[in-house]
Amino acid sequence: MTTIVKGQPLSAEVRQRLAAEGRPVLVAFSGGKDAIACTLALIEAGVDVRLAHLYLIPGREPGTTLEFVEEGLSYAEGKLGMRVHRYPHPSLYRMLNALIFQPPERCAIIEAADLPIPTYEEIWQVIRMDLGLDPDTWVADGVRAADSPYRRAALVTHGVMKPSTGKVSPIHDWVKAEWSACLDRHGWQLPPDYEMFGRSFDGIDRRFLEPMRAHRPRDYQRVLDWFPLAEMELVRHGV
């Protein structure tokens, strides 16, 4: 049973409208279950999709991210037969400028670099330009009302299709049974994140660092390359 979001169309209607427009839709492809389900639902509705992943930690090779995240993205590329384009996440710039987990000798260098902090709207506009898409191309996400009362309230207040920002939530009323069935229909295996964290990777706190240190030491070291004092997060918790 879907979740009713007051004053908003059903997600099936949203997907039908996107298909009827006959234009590509850009998907914010985190690699998590909701982003995967969103992508598959759009494809099932006949929507032409483009996928873009915003990475939090740069990988060892240009244009890549952590190895276990790359595994999930490469799997998606193989299943869908299309490229998942990689771009730096705005939070990477925010964390660097805020000197998160940085040793003293790096602080002056980072401050001198005067890195920009793009907004989400700015970075998605840059991505649209980079992929040759129209400036008003929809950016779809996997936000669902069932995730939390806050998300439900935000969907009610701001809507599921927001022309001012170009954001759209095509599976906003889905519950677990629906996204799970969608992944099953396509024989989709969840990425390594879920085995380690029970969710997709999106931070450098203990929830992610401890399992990463135990199971993905190369990726853990890569986090320390960018945020050398992140290990203090584990020391603080006595792990």
Low-confidence stretches: none
- Domain count: the total is 1
Average pLDDT confidence is 96
Based on Cα principal axes, name the global outline.
Answer: globular
CATH superfamily: HUPs
Structural class: alpha/beta
Would you list the SSEs in sequence order as H and E? HEHEHEHHHEHEEHHHHH
Number of helices: 12
Strand content: 5-15%
- Reported CATH architecture: 3-Layer(aba) Sandwich
Tell me about the largest β-sheet.
6 strands, mixed
Helix fraction, binned, reads: 40-55%
Write down how many β-strands occur, each being a DSSP E stretch of 2 or more residues.
Answer: 6
- Cα Rg: 19 Å
Q: What is the quaternary state of this protein?
A: single chain
Terminal-residue CA separation: 42 Å
Strand order of the largest sheet: 3-2-1-4-6-5
CATH topology: Rossmann fold
Reading off the top of the CATH hierarchy, the class is best stated as Alpha Beta
Write the layout of secondary structure elements.
Layout: H1 11-21, E1 25-28, H2 33-44, E2 49-55, H3 67-80, E3 84-88, H4 90-97, H5 104-113, H6 120-130, E4 139-140, H7 149-158, E5 161-162, E6 167-168, H8 176-185, H9 192-196, H10 206-215, H11 217-226, H12 231-236
Parallel strand pairs: 1-2, 1-4, 2-3, 4-6
Antiparallel strand pairs: 5-6
Describe the structure.
- The chain has 239 residues and is α/β, with parallel strands linked by helices.
- It has a single domain (11-189), classed as Rossmann fold (3-Layer(aba) Sandwich).
- 49% of the residues lie in helices and 9% in strands.
- The chain has a 6-stranded mixed β-sheet with strand order 3-2-1-4-6-5, with helices on both faces.
- Strand 2 (49-55), helix 3 (67-80) and strand 3 (84-88) form a beta-alpha-beta unit.
